[in-house]
Write a structure and sequence with these properties.
Layout: E1 2-6, E2 15-21, E3 28-35, H1 40-60, H2 62-70, E4 80-87, E5 93-98, E6 102-106, E7 111-113, H3 120-131, E8 157-160, E9 165-169, H4 171-174, H5 179-189, H6 193-202, E10 215-221
Protein name: PPM-type phosphatase domain-containing protein
Pfam families: SpoIIE (PF07228)
Length: about 220
């Protein structure tokens, strides 16, 4: 497993990433959390959220891991988005998420986006494909489902086949690197997970106002089965 992270321009980093392998289930859970904002509470909580999601997820599955992490968030208070991958020794993995952190699968030929962002921009983008083009990119910060508000009915589940790479990113990567550039980096560095994670984070450029979000990428070799 490879992890790369880079602090943005707005304050202490509120991204967190961790992995945990259960000796009981032989499953490994990999959690990526993106805290909302940069206040001291979420900066302190983000690593706890990732650790909880990974430890519970490895034993009890992805949904239990994600929702257990959500229980650490209070209302009103800080919030976060997260994606959790639980891999299996026999091959394959399960992906659950809340918010706009993403998971991709590289099978050696094609890069597939496994997750759908839970934000207003993604919703309106889907609508725009039917009604015509509308400018929606500015609405990406309006998150509809977060870690703190997630319930079983709102947490999607994706099953991933064995083999290839799993790539998890916060929006500081995929919102500031074009999809074609992400795929080009995956093709170039697929044989070296740490180099790929480093390259994805380094590719995130500031916007026209000089703002750059926290950026974190995780790359995991999926068991071949």
């Amino acid at each position: 497993m490879a992890i790369a992270t880079r602090e943005g321009t707005s304050g202490p980093i509120a991204d967190a990433a961790t992995a945990y392998t259960s000796t009981t289930t032989d499953r490994t859970a990999v959690a990526l959390v993106d805290g909302m904002g940069h206040d001291p509470d979420i900066v302190r909580l983000a690593p706890m959220l990732a650790e909880t999601a990974a430890r519970v997820g490895a034993v009890r599955g992805g949904l239990a891991g994600l929702l257990s992490a959500g229980l650490l968030l209070h209302d009103p208070g800080p919030d976060a988005v997260a994606v959790l991958a639980v891999t299996h020794q026999g091959g394959g993995a399960e992906i659950v998420w809340a918010g706009d952190s993403r998971a991709y699968h590289w099978d050696g030929t094609e890069l597939q986006l496994l997750t759908t962002d839970h934000n207003l921009a993604a919703y309106l983008s889907r609508a725009a494909r039917e009604a015509g083009d509308v400018p929606v990119s500015a609405l990406a910060d309006f998150v509809g489902i977060s870690l703190g508000t997630a319930v079983p009915a709102t947490v999607p589940y994706v099953s991933v086949p064995a083999g290839g790479l799993l790539i998890l990113t916060t929006d500081g990567v995929h919102d500031q690197v074009e999809p074609a550039a992400i795929e080009a980096l995956v093709r170039k560095y697929a044989v070296d997970p740490q180099a790929l994670a480093d390259a994805l984070v380094a590719a995130a450029e500031p916007d026209i106002d000089g703002y750059r979000d926290d950026a974190t990428a995780m790359v995991i070799r999926a068991a071949a089965g």
